[in-house]
Amino acid sequence: MSFNTSTPSKKPLTPSPDDSGVSIQLSELGEESEKMLGSTDTDSACKSNEVIMDMEDGKQEQIQFMVKFHNDLSTESEGSDSSGTLTCFIVVHSTMTSFITNNSSRLKKIILVLLAVLYLAYFKAALVFHAIHFCPDNHNVLPLIVLTCVVLLLIVISYVSSRFGEDIREKLMLPVARSIDNHWNVLKWVVMLLPLAGIVAVIVITVKDSPKNLASLAGLAFFIIILFIFSSHPTRVNWRPVIGGFVLQFCFATLILKWDVGYKVFSFLGEEARKFLAYTDVGAEFVFGKKFTDHIFAMKVLPVVVFFSCVITMLYHLGIMQAVISKIAFVMRCTLGTTAAESLCAAGNIFVGQTEAPILIRPFLSVMTKSELHAVMVGGFATIAGGVLAAYISFGIPPEHLLCASVMNAPCALAVSKLLYPETEKSKISKTCAMTKGGGQYRNILEAAAAGASQSIALVANIAANLIAFLALLAFVNATLAWFGAFVCLPNLSFESICHYLLMPVVYLMGVRWEDAGHVAELIALKTFLNEFVAYEKLSEFINARLTCDDSIHILSPRSEIIATYALCGFSNLSSIGIMLGGLGPMAPQRVGDMAQIVVSALFGGVVACLITASVAGLLVVEVPSDLVSCMVAMGNDTLAGNVSLVVDVVTQNASNVADLIVTTASAAV
């Protein structure tokens, strides 16, 4: 397309300040605009106005502006260098824009092919350099290989799904689904008995190697009986989601705790998460100075929450979180038979908090039954958010067990909810529901990152304020109890000591050895009545004491530490009641009354769900006291070093005495 410049100009073009920064995309105007720009007489103008009226409203202003702009250029002087330069620039710009727009698909493919070729060259070079030990720091290339294979697999799946997804669904999946429906009366027994047989086999093998693990099985049965006793409608319990939830939880636990590959994968993920979160120290050091670790919680732990919140928001913007959550929700929906909204919220709770996960199903909250609302609440109480998970990792809590607990608690929460508050109404939610895709809330990934960091301010302030308030309250309660206890010869009476003895039998049933049961009971009480942050901070003291062989406090066994880690992994504490109601209430104001009626039951369900998860972990974890052995070796080395030092001191002292004696004798002889 070109401008018609045959009309003689009258005066040179002088661009006004308002003209600066105007970008005109001629390629978007179509053939109609070209026809209008090709003539300037009255008839053409009338025709162009008719064309403009027939076009969409969104392009009318653009076309009218182009007609006016072209007419202005046509009346300017041909001898003006500035007008000629501007005209050429506009023509070149419009041509390039038109070319890019018309060939955007091809250009995108070319860029992707170039990137793929570059990465292939890089990947080949990495393998060769690793094989010949070319680099001074020869890193393990296995993670790069695994990452490349995973990305290739996702690309293949995406390509096959986009090109052949409908054919696969019609010719393969639908016939298989019909065949399953026709033979479901037989297949359902196979589906039920095979997992149960596998679970029994795993339990038998584990108990054979470690008979004391059988105590955790008694604890698991005890908690299920308690839930059934306190059930709102014990005769209306649908056992499919209950059994399915516990089976799925046990399968997750077996894959992670009993399968070496699964444990190594989660250990690798946990270690990489620890390294990733360590980058927070760079920002914290810049803001607070090099001595920021002097204030370990305020300046090292809380910044981790800010960083992780930023990352999570970016992943949501890219749609990665939605894809992962939807796949986990699909597995739980098929296994448990729960509605899509319940499963989606439970899966979301693995990664985000108790008030963020319900946002995924916000349109359905107002029409949910009480049982479905109860399931949403229990899922929030029984799990933790990714931001605080990062904070617990910074405490020194084993990240692989925190990740495992987060995954196990999701199906367990649904099972506990359906046992504690069974469904007695007809659900208004279909078996499938759409999930919002990423990319719509923010204009680009940088805005998403900034928003995530800003949104974490409220969470960080809430954590700090709660810790200040509850620790002060705990100190006051302990001082009051000690004052009353002093009159009956119990000057050390405290909240922890009371819970120490009250909860010892329950903790012992979870698989904790009797010597550690009281201390783990204190941790569970702190988590339930105060805050899980307080409990995990106390647990980190026990872990550090074992690792450093500090006998100033009681040293827990590694098995007791693991069980405590699972038992504390949840937001089920009294302060979370207000957070839950405050978060869900604005999303469904008409259901606030129902929420307030069932929130206490949901809190109880969240507490029991965490204890059940801890019991399952206690059933499968076989203690290898390598840390205790290393601690004993360290203590032995210290003792040996002390003895050697003592011998050296004695020899040195005696040698000095002998030398003095020789000098004295020689002097006397002289």
TrEMBL record:
Concentrative nucleoside transporter C-terminal domain location, by residue?
401-618
Question: Which cellular compartments is it found in?
Answer: Cell membrane
Question: What membrane topology is annotated for this entry?
Answer: Multi-pass membrane protein
Indicate the segments forming the Concentrative nucleoside transporter N-terminal domain, all copies: 218-290
Region of interest called Disordered, as start-end residue ranges on this chain: 1-23
User: Could you identify this protein by its name?
Assistant: Sodium/nucleoside cotransporter
Query: According to its UniProt record, where is this protein mainly located?
Result: membrane
- Family to which this protein belongs: Belongs to the concentrative nucleoside transporter (CNT) (TC 2.A.41) family.
Cited InterPro entries: C_nuclsd_transpt, C_nuclsd_transpt_met_bac, CNT_C_dom, CNT_N_dom, Gate_dom
Please give the organism: Batillaria attramentaria
Q: Which residues cross the membrane?
A: 110-132, 144-165, 186-207, 213-230, 242-259, 296-318, 373-395, 457-477, 483-503, 563-584, 596-622
Which residues are in the Nucleoside transporter/FeoB GTPase Gate domain? 299-396
| GO cellular component assignments | plasma membrane
UniProt key word Cell membrane:
yes
Enumerate composition-biased segments (Low complexity).
1-20
Task: Report keywords, A-Z.
Answer: Cell membrane, Membrane, Transmembrane, Transmembrane helix, Transport
